[in-house]
Task: structure prediction
Amino acid sequence: MSRQKKHWYAVYTRPRAEKQVYQCLAETGIDAFLPLHKTLRQWSDRKKMVEVPLFSSYVFVHIDTPDYDRVLHTNGVVKYVTFEGKAASIPQDQIDNLKLIVNSNADIEVTHKKLKPGQQVEVTHGTLKGLRGELLKISKKHRLLVRIDTIHQNLLVNIPENFLQTAP
Result:
């Protein structure tokens, strides 16, 4: 009996429940991905570097049909991100790009803006080598845009111009 092919999906969580949902999914054997980045938080008495979700209220799951309901019934999961009433599948290359970004030391900025398409480029050097995305030129900085269309999120990463080449 063959298993169906797995696909990546985004699930929407209760506010500030991303880490809890990720932990519950991992404990039940569901392949999940929670992109985190480090940020400096300041309290009245101290400053501290903390890891926070890159996308608020989103966790990614790599599942096949039998696991669909199990994910949905996980504590803290609100719903799947849908398109035309069905859970929207996220292409593997977008997940791979996202993993490459969060595993690097790149300066990451998340934006919800719909940006105009630009030239497709690939990073040729550094910790993000192999990353492909859309090039933007903003205030004399070269930034690489990686879109996660399904959840309407964009990542902007500063990349030196000499690290980029036109993508094939």
